[in-house]
Design a protein that fits this description.
CATH architecture of the largest domain: 4-Layer Sandwich
Family: Belongs to the metallophosphoesterase superfamily.
Order of helices and strands: HHHHEEHEHEHEEEHEHEHEEE
Distance between the termini: 53 Å
Protein name: Metallophosphatase
Number of domains: 2
Strand order of the largest sheet: 1-12-2-3-4-5
Pfam families: Metallophos
GO molecular function: metal ion binding; UDP-2,3-diacylglucosamine hydrolase activity
Oligomer: single chain
Number of helices: 10
Radius of gyration: 26 Å
Helix content: 40-55%
Shape: elongated
Keywords: Hydrolase, Membrane, Metal-binding, Transmembrane, Transmembrane helix
Length: 393
């Protein structure tokens, strides 16, 4: 059903693109037929990029992933640009109709009339403008998405935090999305950057992979080189449950020295002082008998010390706040990934990036270090964040 709905939406988008970029800019004939076939080919590549990784495998679908997903990004911005130009197009069309064209011989073809020629000129000018803007945006966005993530330090004050933890540093990374477009080199770069921060603890907040251990195990292998005195921890995101056996990744991460927190918690200690680090499964785990369980994750904690919760989706903060969590670490949103689509994300999530507060719970949302779908980021550069903790006076 999901694929049927998605295919229908993409089909309607491409029908609109065909109308504005092909039909309105050409006369009937060979050129229109060629451009129609090209546009249909782009749609086919996009559908292949979406479907093949889950049907034939990540490696086997790599040939379609780059062109298909790049076209996805380009088609999205072509759609937006053309919609923005619609009012301009309507104004000019009215201007053309109000004009007084010179008389046309009775036997002249309609396609050669001055009004038709002016319409073609305006349609082509609009198509060129939309194409230039879209290519420029996607080029910039691809360079941003494929470049190194920004490293930012954010101070966090926690109530009940023992002074022994002043300056304790948590490196937060999410949404790495290893898959057909991001492989071992992507992981190696992230591991190097995280290690260079000198963080005391690393929190990987879900959506690490888009494929099976057999396909992406080598790409995840560099995670064994993460170096943090208090360890590296992981919670599932929704994409971990898109494979047939999501639990195989939990076993693989344990083998690599990354500790999953599956509705559980662990104490982080400095001498006699401690705070609790907890993790809950993603909401998508409900379909795999692996649902989030806040009672299990938080029920046994000492209320005299602060709690830091790892939960992939920011929307889970309402449950966290009801249970007195001090700080929730999340991802999932990609910061919106491609402006202006972050408005849609903001409509369903309490925050899309950065630090905010819900009730008495602080929420930090990472923009993520990878991308999903188009390898494009506009207005939402990738990041790795180091949270520097201090007691709340």
């Amino acid at each position: 059903m999901f694929l049927v709905v998605l295919a229908s939406i993409l089909g309607l988008i491409h029908l609109y693109l065909w109308k504005r970029l092909v039909k309105d800019t050409t006369r009937p004939g060979r050129t229109r037929r060629i451009l129609t076939v090209v546009l249909l080919g782009c749609l086919a590549l996009l559908m292949a990029a979406l479907i093949l990784p889950r049907t034939v495998g990540v490696r086997e679908a790599a040939w379609a992933a780059w062109p298909g997903y790049l076209w996805f990004g380009l088609a999205a911005y072509l759609l937006l640009a053309l919609l923005v130009l619609e009012p301009v197009r309507l104004v000019f069309r009215r201007w053309v109709r109000r004009g007084t064209p010179p008389p046309v011989p009775a036997d002249a073809p309609a396609a050669s009339s001055p009004e038709v020629n002016r319409r073609l000129f305006l349609a082509r000018a609009g198509a060129v403008a939309a194409g230039a803007a879209s290519v420029g945006l996607v080029g910039f966005g691809a360079a941003t998405a494929l470049g190194p993530p920004q490293v930012q330090t954010v101070p966090i004050r926690l109530r009940r935090l023992d002074p022994a933890f002043a300056g304790f540093r948590i490196a937060v990374v999410s949404d790495i999305h290893l898959g057909p477009l991001a492989g071992r080199a992507h992981t190696e770069r992230l591991v190097r950057i995280i290690n260079e921060t000198g963080a005391d603890l690393v929190a990987i907040v879900g959506d690490l992979v888009d494929g099976t251990v057999a396909e992406l195990g080598p790409a995840a292998e560099p995670l064994r080189d993460l170096s943090a005195p208090e360890g590296t921890f992981f919670v599932t995101g929704n994409h971990e449950y898109f494979v047939e056996d999501p639990f195989s990744w939990l076993r693989e991460l344990e083998r690599l020295g990354v500790q999953p927190l599956r509705n559980e918690n662990t104490a982080i200690r400095r001498g006699a002082a401690a705070f609790d680090l907890a993790g809950v499964n993603d909401l998508a785990g409900e379909n795999h008998s692996d649902a989030p369980d806040f009672d299990r994750a938080l029920g046994s904690l000492d209320p005299s010390r602060p709690t830091v919760l790892m939960a992939h989706q920011p929307i889970m903060v309402s449950e966290a706040a009801a249970r007195g969590v001090d700080l929730q670490l999340s991802g999932h949103t990609h910061g919106g990934q491609m402006w202006p689509f972050h408005y849609a994300v903001r409509a369903v999530q309490p925050a899309i990036a950065g630090l905010s507060t819900v009730a008495d719970t602080q929420l930090y949302v990472s923009r993520g270090a990878g991308f999903w779908g188009p390898p494009v980021r506009i207005g939402a550069p990738p990041d790795i964040t180091v949270l520097s903790l201090s007691p709340d006076a």
